[in-house]
Design goal:
Elements (H helix, E strand, L loop, with lengths): L2 E2 L6 E2 L2 E4 L6 H10 L4 E5 L12 E4 L17 E4 L11 H22 L3 E5 L9 H16 L4 E4 L3 E3 L10 H9 L1 H9 L2 E3 H13 L5 E4 L1 H8 L1
Parallel strand pairs: 3-4, 3-6, 4-5, 6-7, 7-8, 8-11, 9-10
Antiparallel strand pairs: 1-2
Helix pairs in contact: 1-6, 2-3, 4-5, 6-7
């Protein structure tokens, strides 16, 4: 079934979101609903009440595709946002238990149900820290690429927003690094983006899926959100 947005976006497919109660998920769902998208959002039984009003609530376990695959609408855009909150090097085992297990389940469900477009929020790499986190995201990207599904992979480094503001202190350093030829490329790839920018970039990716598998680094994320 095809739905039409309210902002002259043309025909769009329904959207299925995992991680809909999280840092990106809730405001993304709200932004999509405001634009007339039909959004189906997965949540655990105890978290369903945290989903924005207007989304179609899907109760299930993001780590087990058998609990939610049947609820994915035909030809949906699948947005995978499940991840360990506030990742740090001490959470390496949690990255594999949650982040990796959830992307495995998401890709399995997407393949089984014939998803139209898969969107995966990964992380910029290589990077000087968080090796375990990046390794898991690289495995997730490989799963997405091998699925045969049209896909968009976004690679932010750090997403600024409520509760995630301390890196604002680094903005002056990034400005200097972008002026030095030897560090310019790395500074751009590992640049900081706001939550608002990420949401705008994901909405743009949903509306214009492209062909094959595309990767959006920080510069492309900013451009898509502009």
């Amino acid at each position: 079934m095809t739905h039409r947005g309210r902002d002259d976006a043309g025909p769009v497919n329904p959207v299925f979101i995992t991680g809909g109660t999280g840092y990106l998920g809730r405001p993304l769902i709200t932004a999509l609903l405001e634009r007339g998208f039909v959004v189906h959002a997965l949540a655990r039984p105890q978290s369903v009440r945290r989903l924005p009003t207007g989304a179609v609530h899907v109760v299930g376990n993001a780590l087990d595709d058998t609990t939610f695959a049947a609820a994915i609408p035909p030809r949906a855009t699948f947005v995978h946002l499940v991840g360990t909150p506030h990742p740090n090097p001490a959470k390496a085992s949690e990255f594999r238990r949650v982040d990796l297990a959830s992307i495995k389940a998401a890709v399995a469900a997407a393949i089984r149900t014939g998803v139209h477009h898969f969107i995966y929020v990964s992380v910029a790499h290589p990077a000087p820290v968080m090796h375990a986190y990046i390794a898991v995201r690289e495995e997730g990207e490989a799963l997405v690429r091998s699925s045969g599904i049209r896909a968009t992979i976004l690679r932010p480094w750090y997403i600024l927003g409520p509760g995630h503001r301390w890196p604002y202190l680094l903005l002056a350093i990034y400005a200097v690094l972008r002026c030095i030829p030897a560090t310019r490329q790395g500074a751009a790839r590992l640049g900081l983006v706001t939550r608002q920018t990420m949401i705008a970039a994901i909405v743009s990716a949903i509306r214009t899926p492209g062909e094959g598998v595309r990767t959006m680094e920080v510069p492309e994320i900013r451009q898509a959100a502009a």
